[in-house]
């Protein structure tokens, strides 16, 4: 049975994000094909896709290698997410389905329960599912693809601290869902912008020795123009 290239791509990407392959290390087609039990053809296709996404670079005399992003490039990812997630929420308010709302409300309910119990690992997964579903509700394939890629790359480059008050964080997510349910695009955008900005402050580079460490602080995007008042914590 031929394993499709996108499955091989997902497997390699997951291993890069989890640190199986160190930054700068070579990715030879032969070794990858052996590891994933496939021919070199889907591996070659997967590496091309991962290069277009920024996870892999091709170097002269070395071939495919895991990319080594700078601190500035890492900071840019957070800034892009702070700009794109509010757009996705605004689109979701206009295009969401009842199925999207049901899933979003269910995730908020579970998140609030886990937060009260202090179940941190569950909260991390639930938060990821929440924002993935919110992006899906935007109904924009291009935006969904960009946000998905950003999530992967941010998870690769950053560790995320748990919020001091996770209950507040989930209350904020609940308010976003309420705005989406009412079709209030501007409020959904504003609340999500605040949420994303708070999230940026909880991110810590996994490799503090990356190039550009002194010149690339974590960006902050002001959301004061929205005039929204809501208690909240992190992403």
UniProtKB/TrEMBL annotation:
Region described as Disordered: spans on this chain: 196-235
Matches recorded under InterPro entries: GntR_C, TF_FadR/GntR_C, Tscrpt_reg_HTH_GntR, WH-like_DNA-bd_sf, WH_DNA-bd_sf
Residues in HTH gntR-type domain copies: 2-69
Record-linked SUPFAM superfamilies: GntR ligand-binding domain-like (SSF48008), Winged helix' DNA-binding domain (SSF46785)
UniProt-listed SMART domains: FCD, HTH_GNTR
Keyword Transcription: yes
Keyword Transcription: yes
Gene3D superfamilies (UniProt xref): GntR ligand-binding domain-like, Winged helix-like DNA-binding domain superfamily/Winged helix DNA-binding domain
Keyword tags: DNA-binding, Transcription, Transcription regulation
Pfam families noted in UniProt: FCD, GntR
Protein name: GntR family transcriptional regulator
């Amino acid at each position: 049975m031929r394993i499709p290239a996108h499955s091989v791509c997902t497997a390699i990407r997951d291993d890069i994000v989890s640190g199986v392959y160190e930054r700068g290390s070579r990715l030879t087609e032969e070794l990858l094909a052996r590891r994933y039990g496939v021919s070199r053809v889907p591996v070659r296709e997967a590496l091309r896709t991962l290069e277009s996404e920024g996870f892999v670079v091709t170097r002269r005399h070395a071939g495919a290698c895991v990319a080594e992003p700078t601190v500035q490039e890492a900071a840019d990812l957070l800034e892009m997410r702070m700009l794109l997630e509010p757009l996705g929420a605004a689109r979701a308010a206009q295009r969401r389905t009842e199925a999207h709302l049901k899933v979003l409300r269910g995730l908020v309910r579970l998140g609030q329960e886990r937060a009260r119990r202090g179940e941190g690992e569950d909260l991390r997964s639930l938060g990821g599912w929440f924002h993935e579903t919110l992006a899906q509700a935007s109904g924009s394939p291009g935006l969904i693809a960009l946000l998905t890629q950003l999530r992967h790359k941010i998870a690769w480059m950053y560790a995320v601290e748990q919020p001091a008050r996770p209950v507040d964080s989930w209350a904020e997510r609940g308010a976003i869902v309420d705005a989406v349910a009412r079709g209030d695009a501007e409020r959904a955008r504003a609340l999500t912008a605040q949420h994303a900005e708070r999230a940026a402050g909880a991110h810590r580079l996994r490799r503090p020795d990356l190039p550009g460490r002194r010149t690339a602080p974590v960006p902050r995007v002001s959301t004061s123009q929205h005039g929204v008042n809501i208690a909240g914590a992190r992403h």
